[in-house]
Write a structure and sequence with these properties.
The protein is mostly helical and about 160 residues long. The protein has two domains: about 80 residues, 2-Layer Sandwich (GMP Synthetase, Chain A, domain 3), CATH 3.30.300.180; about 30 residues, no CATH class. The protein is built from six helices and three strands. The chain has a three-stranded mixed beta sheet with strand order 1-2-3, with helices on one face. The chain is elongated, with a radius of gyration of 28 Å. The N and C termini lie far apart (about 95 Å).
Length: about 160
């Protein structure tokens, strides 16, 4: 009497667990990029492929990801792409897109040494003036003579 292993139903939780495990194992296989081609390319060709990928994202309906790729101009240093974004949210979304983007660029340029570094450039948030005291302080900062006028005419806030 031979015991055959029963196959899990396609709709069972066990089959989902097995599928996730097999996908996780397949992702762990790493290829040594040092043995793969490292063809040279121009910055113009690289930028045209970058823009073409952004256009592909628009065609697929991923306009938010396309706008992230168009948010600034990538800087190419050797085979390292430096990309600056204004906030962490955009950087996180680009990090999720990074494997697909790099695969596209590496295969299109036949250079598997290309890598992408995402930097977040924190910009100072513009502070809005709402209260009369904040408005007065700002005016006084711009022109200290406002304090003299206030005292001279006995003005209050």
């Amino acid at each position: 009497m031979s015991r055959e292993r029963k196959r899990a139903s396609a709709l069972s939780l066990k089959s989902l667990t097995e599928k996730v495990t097999s996908v996780a194992l397949s992702d762990e296989i790493e290829i040594d990029r040092n043995t793969l081609p490292k063809d040279g390319f121009t910055e113009t060709k690289f930028l045209s492929l970058w823009n073409a990928y952004a256009e592909q994202l628009v065609q697929r309906g991923d306009k938010s990801l396309a706008s992230i790729l168009n948010a600034s101009k990538p800087v190419l240093k050797e085979w390292n792409i430096q990309y600056a974004l204004p906030n962490n949210l955009m950087a996180d979304q680009l990090e999720r897109l990074k494997p697909r983007l790099l695969k596209y660029l590496r295969e299109s340029l036949n250079n598997f040494s290309i890598d992408l570094e995402v930097h977040v450039i924190e910009t100072e948030v513009k502070k809005f003036i709402y209260t009369p005291q904040e408005k007065y302080s700002k005016l006084k900062e711009i022109n200290p003579d406002v304090e003299i006028l206030k005292n001279m005419f006995g003005l209050d806030l």
